[in-house]
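Subject — a protein and its fold

Tokens — whole-number codes for backbone shape
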Amino acid sequence: MSFFPLMPARFALAVACVALLPISGADAQQRQRPAARSPEVTFHNRSDTVMQNLFVTPTDEASWGEDRLGSDTVNAGRRHRFRLSTAQQCRFDVRAVYSEGREETRFGVDLCQRPEVSLDGRTETTAQDLQRAGPVALFVVRNRTGNTLQTLKLTSPSGDDSDDILGAAVLADGASYTGRFVRQDGCTYDLTATFEERDEQTIPRRNLCTTREVVFQGSDRNTAPSGTPGAPGAAQEQLQVEIFNRGGITIQTLNVREARANSWGRDRLGSEVIAARNSFTLRMPRGRGCQYDVRITFDNNREEVRSNVNLCETRELAFTGPALAPGRGTRKTAPSQGEATPRLSQVAILNEGTNPIESLFISSSKVSTWGEDRLGASRIAPGDRFSTQVERDDQCNYDFRIVYQGGREERRMRQNICDRREVAFGGPNAFRIDGGGPEGGRRLVFVNQGRTDVRELYLTPVTDTHWGDDRLGSETLPRRFRLELRVPNEGGCRWDVKLVYEGGQTLEQRDQDLCAKAELSVGRPPRIGNLASTGTGFYVSTSGHVLTNQHVVDGCGTVAISRPDGKRTTLRMIAQDEGADLALLQEEGATTPALSLRAGSQTPIRAGERVVLVGYPARSQLGGVNVTEGLISGLRGALGDQSRFQYSAPTQPGNSGGPVLDEFGHVVGVVVSQIDKISGERTAQNINFGIKLDLVRTFLEANRVTPTEDTASQTLRAADILQNANQSVLPLDCLE
């Protein structure tokens, strides 16, 4: 029997989400691509923490193989590169483990076509992954015992034991590990685990071909019956308490001891923390009694202790902590001795954008959590400012984070609040981040004049053959925003610039004289009246209201209906919601009938329903209206987004904003995106997403639009649905 020695995360934390991981061994990005059969692959760590392990193995191998990082790690925002033989095949499985133990997996990645992969630490092994065909099968082990799982072995029906498939690692409480095995060697095994604070536990005769998830619970319900070899013995009662952090500061440690015991024992959080207003489920075996002392420690080293708590009866335990949050995680340096009063800086936040700011966080650049929302119930309207006092530590650099209405975030990192008393968001004066550089270097400002966000920026002397580090790290540079950084004087005046936009497009500006100009515009500036992009919209009322995606109209000088005779009808902007990705426009004097929404009294959409798309994809090539069919394949969007659903009808650029129609021709959603637009991957096909109808109704009601609704009647062919919807679905032009 073949087992792959699983190399889980150090103190693995369960769950993850989609994205491939960067390589840190050689931070310089090569300007030229290596040979096809032995390419240099790059993994970019776009998560917010350190990558500890990286496994890259062919899809048909039964073992994850060696850790590609070796003794290295990959910090957040950094890359790791190595050469990988693709002489036999191009498809590889990827598994990354981060410092807090969480696991991220990707399967079937074509590294010949895509030699650079981004990992964001949020992609877990899904049920669909576990069902993939091929000689190598996958399974997932989840630790839900309240203790650290130390070793894990598999025993075949013939009595053959595997080595410890965790290798030198352990599996922390709450963590998951994705394993591999060869189907032809059989599917049924006993899984035996040993734990830090208890005897071993065995899950007997588990068929890993039919049951792909194996969960070790806090009780012994999964264990073998008494008398079975490997059975653990009598069950031990488990205590389970939800620990709530009601304060504004992260809880760093949690210790529990039996009342009046001399020692606190280990930190029950392990590598985790409890962020402000979050909770943590404490699971532990019951001791001799029910009375326990509980101690927590906040970011600022403040402790709270609850004595003689009856954990047999208590189900929830809340801690409030100090009223104000000083930072974002790492404990601060103690203030200078003899300093009687804190140092305060007055800072004004300017909203130069078009949406209200609903949340504001300010934190020292030395720490890693954001603390409390300084706005509370207040908002900063477009054009307004908000002043607040910041209690400084022993330095001046602070990070700012705001959240707009709708959920979009912006950040300004490493702002010197001793020198800068105003921080602007959303406008032409807004600095995205401080891009770093030597203190004595020349100051340089980049302005993004392109139509989309810049996700990577490289700056290197013309004499250098490598692009060097991504100056943005984990940040992005939105359009019309500015990036301030410093370049070393010894690099000379002539520099090359390379940009990578969110859609993957690359722009290079060579031989720029940075001594001659302190501000450099990157990206093509808009040309007034030029056609920038196209999309789809549809009438939702008899008053000419048109619904589409917000990203279709974002940044447009004018939005117009493209008529068959070549003329355009300009639409008036009514409302935009960036979080929902919906926009409402209106055509004055329109008389065209509106599409009907599926009535609210009808059954909600279900997986397996037939759907039809009517829209205008790739209009420059296809010309007119286009219709495609498919099924609703899932009721959630990417990363579990409950405001979206998944469908299989073919979708192309230009379909965005169009209607998703049921078999009666009623609107059940709005086309919003393809999977590759979200993850950057093109390995999946026909995985597309729509906006659910309840979110559409909420958006329309908020803007005083009452859509037409209808109940089910007679099922229609796609040709009839197209004929009925043709006049109500519109090709939209975005003009600069």
Observations:
- The two ends are 63 Å apart (CA to CA).
